[in-house]
Design brief:
The protein has helices spanning about 20-45, 50-60, 80-95, 95-120, 125-140, 260-290, 305-335, 345-375, 385-395, 405-415, and strands at about 145, 160-165, 170-180, 185, 190-195, 200-205, 205-210, 215, 230-240, 245-250. It is an alpha+beta fold. It folds into three domains: about 20-140, Butyryl-Coa Dehydrogenase, subunit A, domain 1, CATH 1.10.540; about 160-250, Butyryl-CoA Dehydrogenase, subunit A, domain 2; about 260-415, Butyryl-CoA Dehydrogenase, subunit A, domain 3, CATH 1.20.140. It is globular, with a radius of gyration of 22 Å.
């Protein structure tokens, strides 16, 4: 019996691809900038320094203007699916740069949707502010940071408070994980606003970098994602003019129909980062299988245990890409249906359940893929100089990222599935 041809080239793998023309341009820009991101990734990871040059190149190329309409100088990308693809491409080169870029892109997408809503409501003052802001983002003049996470609470119940004063509000509180904060020009913390009845409304404030009382803490020293600049940001009685407080809603402590807004535009591409991490790990594993080891001189690729490990990697990666593809298309359809109106709470909750299923799967599978890739590559992958060492640590950031931790996600998914109130135990 003839032996199998072990010299044949690997067949091309099926990739996630953009579905719109603007999205394809965004993916092209991500791929064009990936080489520079990869070139400095190991240095920034070791030093724990912010990837300034990678972010600057993305900004200069027009990538940062992705979600901004063409009328305001951007690419006009309105597909969450396509942003997910682009961010996953960047993450193959450097996941830290990918999540930093996503923070800004998500902010641009949120501003676009806010503007659409304000136009529909004929809110002239807010429309003017948002129009100017989008023009600045489209021209690459400003970088956006949306710090939302706080210690001891969840995204639906911010402790950071906007207190009404003459002419506006003062914002006080401390936000964690202010990704891209080292170079951000505008900060958009989620806040609570006293409703005058002993309770709170929620809103988003716009605070400029030079506002007295705003402090970017130099405290980002994490296991992975070390080049993302995810510092804490402290707001101490920062004055915010009246027209710089947006999306005021009566939903404090409730993750209802408002929740998908940022969760889809910001958190879905964040989760897609880990597809890129998994794809990078797979590439290192495939490359390692060409090595010959032992007295037999057999390639690793010819060993059955290695073949089984690579098969498991391929299966898990296929699962990740399939669930990302599905969720991206669901998100696009949902956001297209509810441009200027709120969705029914039941529909928003059901979609959030689906997005949390996707996030949970991708986060877990990415960690498992990197683990298997390290087994394929052997002991060298345990050394800090090996790229898989960084991927191993970066992959483990995913489960901690918003909006839910793994145990909260399971609780939320279970409650929605059983038709229960999805409010989490506090």
């Amino acid at each position: 019996m003839a032996s199998a041809d072990t010299s044949a080239e690997l067949l091309p793998t099926y990739e996630l691809t953009a579905i719109t023309d603007p999205g394809r341009r965004l993916v092209e820009l991500a791929e064009a900038n990936a080489a520079l991101c990869a070139e400095t990734a190991a240095i920034h990871d070791r030093e724990g320094s912010f990837a300034v040059e990678s972010i600057a190149a993305l900004r200069e190329s027009g990538f940062f203007a992705g979600p901004v309409p063409e009328s305001h100088g951007g690419l006009g990308v309105d597909s969450v699916h396509d942003v997910m693809v682009a961010i996953s491409r960047l993450a193959r080169a450097d996941a830290s740069t990918a999540i930093a870029a996503n923070m800004h892109l998500a902010g641009g997408a949120v501003i676009v949707r806010l503007l659409q809503r304000r136009r529909a409501e004929d809110d002239g003052s807010s429309v003017a502010v948002l129009e100017r802001l989008l023009t600045d983002v489209g021209a690459g003049r400003v970088v956006l940071c949306f710090p939302m996470t706080e210690a001891g609470t969840d995204l639906s119940s911010p402790f950071c408070e906007a207190t009404p004063v003459d002419g506006g509000y003062t914002v006080t509180g401390r936000k964690l994980f202010g990704t891209i904060s080292p170079i951000a020009d505008l900060f958009f913390p989620t806040v609570r606003v006293p409703n005058g009845r002993g309770g709170y409304l929620t809103a988003t404030a716009m605070v400029t970098r030079d506002t007295p009382g705003l402090t970017i803490e130099d405290d980002w020293d994490a296991l992975g994602m070390r080049a993302s600049g995810s510092n804490s940001v402290t707001f101490t009685t920062c004055f915010v003019p009246q027209d710089r407080l947006f999306a005021i809603r009566d939903n404090y402590g409730r993750s209802g129909r408002w929740f998908p807004g940022f969760a889809l535009t910001g958190n879905l591409p964040l989760a897609a980062t880990y597809v890129g991490v998994a794809e990078a790990a797979r590439a290192h594993a495939v490359a390692a299988t060409t090595r010959r080891k032992g007295t037999s001189g057999k390639r690793l690729a010819d060993r059955i245990p290695i073949q089984e490990l690579m098969g498991a990697i391929e299966i898990d990666l296929a699962v990740c890409k399939a669930t990302v593809e599905r969720m991206g298309r669901l998100a696009d359809a949902f956001l297209e249906r509810y441009v200027t109106t709120d969705p029914p709470t039941s529909e928003a909750t059901a979609l959030m359940k689906e997005s949390q299923c996707m996030k949970y799967v991708v986060n877990r599978k990415a960690c498992e893929i990197v683990d298997r890739a390290m087994t394929v590559c052997g002991g060298g992958a345990y050394m800090n100089r090996h790229p898989l060492s960084q991927l191993y640590r970066d992959a483990r950031a995913g489960p901690f990222m918003q909006p839910f931790s793994p145990y909260e996600a399971l609780e939320y998914i279970g409650k929605v599935t059983l038709g229960l109130d999805p409010a989490l135990e506090r």
